[in-house]
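Lab notebook, bench 4. The sequencing result for the construct came back, and we need a structural model before the next group meeting so we can plan mutations. Quick request posted to the team channel:

Model the 3D structure of this chain.
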Amino acid sequence: MEEHVQNPAEARQRAEFLRAELERHNRLYYVEARPEISDREFDRLLRELQDLEAAHPDLATPDSPTQRVGGAPLAGFRQVKHAVPMMSLDNTYSVEEMREFDARIRKALGVESVDYVLEPKVDGVSISLRYENGVLATAATRGDGKTGDDVTANARTIRAIPLRIPTAAPVFEVRGEVYLGKAAFAKLNAERERAGEETFANPRNATAGSLKQLDPKVVAARPLAAVLYATGELVGAEFETQAEVLRALKKLGFPTAKLWWECRGIDEVIARAEELQRREGELEYEMDGAVVKVNRLALWRQLGATAKAPRFAMAYKYSHEQAQTPLKAITLQVGRTGVLTPVAELEPVDLAGSTIARATLHNEDEIRRKDIRVGDTVIIEKAGEVIPAVVSVVAEKRPPGAVPFDLSAHAGGKCPACGGGIVRDPEAAAWRCENLDCAAQIRGRIEHFVSRKAMNIDGFGEAIVAALTAETKVAETKDDGLFGAKTAEKILPPLVRDVADLYTLTPADVELRRPNRAADAKKAEMKLATKLCAALAASRDNELWRLLHGLGIPNVGEGLARTLAQELGSLDALMAADEEALAKVRDVGAIVARSVREFFANERNRAVVEKLRRAGVRFDRVEKVAAGANRDGYFFGKRVVLTGTLEQFTREQAQEELRKRGATVAGTVGKTTHVVVAGADAGSKLDKARALGIPVLSEAEFLAKLAE
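Done. Here's the predicted structure in token form:
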């Protein structure tokens, strides 16, 4: 609520203004397809009105924008009453509010953890498709949520929407979004510009303008597409989970989201939301966030809905901050899988509290779609903790002579790291270095292997990994006793070519290649080198999931690595399992199963595994966390929340210690919380714990309890 609203009269006047303004913007957005403000600004106005009505309940009216979905049926179309209302979602731009959403869900259900599904929030026009005995009978827009426009004739022109589906169900309603793809939108606007017609502001406007055409021939000429992700009325069909719905829709021939995940708990939801944002360039449509839904459909009925939105789902919108700056150059980075990623080298600019000099360009297709050229002034965007990205070009500032970007020509047809050949990988929309011995790929694989969420080997920063995986020029000072001290340079060959080579390193090897080592340093000291080798030796006894994650198996992240370790019990069992058996493992599925089989069918990968075996790396250490914990320990069975900064542990290390002792680590403080561990600079969680009378441990007390 605005600070200047002090008394009931001012509150009423402000509420009336907000209601009128929101209704005006609703019509501009949903009916006329020419919005004047951003989604975030609209959400801010709506949140202000919600706060006003909460503070002054007498101001709430049945026709308030807070009580309805929004939008009005378009004149000129027959009206369709939805058998199941098409509700909008509550949304947030805050990770903390996502955690509060999870806390409300768990409290309402009386459970410790909830499984979710996370999907992209497609920036399109909502549609409901009704199939009767497998044949498309009606297509309708959302309208006001209860009644929409019959756009069946227009929907039939959209090739992505099947006219018939293989089901015997008398009624099968499917819901999703109609959209205009990024490339199709650019082409449509170019055609309109050539024809002297007004161009569309964005793909959603173009989609809305297409669907409301009374002539289906006009719609057919525009390459609309669709993503389907939910069901409406069902007769003769039922599902248990949202994940099952998505898989069934794809099997029935509907286009579904390329990127979606089943998530175990809110921490994985947040991690996947960040991953989705990083991978936005892989999608052919615009998105403005992620949608989080409770996975089990039976719980949807239990959780219910408000007058406007369901309680079982939430839209997490990405908060974008932008700035303009010149693009000085485009460089190419080579990742551990060999993919060449273009990076924008920028004139440094302040953005979201930090100075930005580099930004991701995703891939060559994205550069061509946005027509980004060296020398352009570009708009960069930063969202949350994700690396900045170039989102568009300021066309009027383009310098003369700027030429379109061609990655292969830019690289001279060679890998910039090793000089090997590069090939186009159409499936990944990327160019890839074919040389598996490429130093950049080796370096990437090693950095991943030693990283905190894989083998967690302390001390191996980028500089030391680079020194171990490439030729290193070193200077040594020698005194022969006759002619005095002399410094000579020599080239040392790379010592590490795969992750198993790490375990052959000696302190002397590391010391000689250590970055910034003085030419006259005494080998006898070798403190850092000895520490690194000790950390390597200790990692031989790591849990199996860390090894699986560290190997870099495609499509196997930390969560699936934990699952595979628990279910299979050893690396040998995993390598011996066939694709069918792997696909039956919880959360795995056919795609991951195929990735695992292909990885271990590769002779090069199997050779690395055997080298790890000879190096003494454990293949069978599976930690049954709660089962192996001391049931009389202080943390066993407790729900623990960590807040603030700990000196002795990273957040992940502290969580791991608690899980080993049978605790459940939670992200929010509530009545079910047993204890809070508070480090330095603890904030609202500590305040809430004190208000609820929940025991709070300092870091010293936490260490003492761990040691008991």
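Residues 544-614 form a domain with the DNA polymerase; domain 1 fold (CATH 1.10.150.20).
Will bring this to the meeting.
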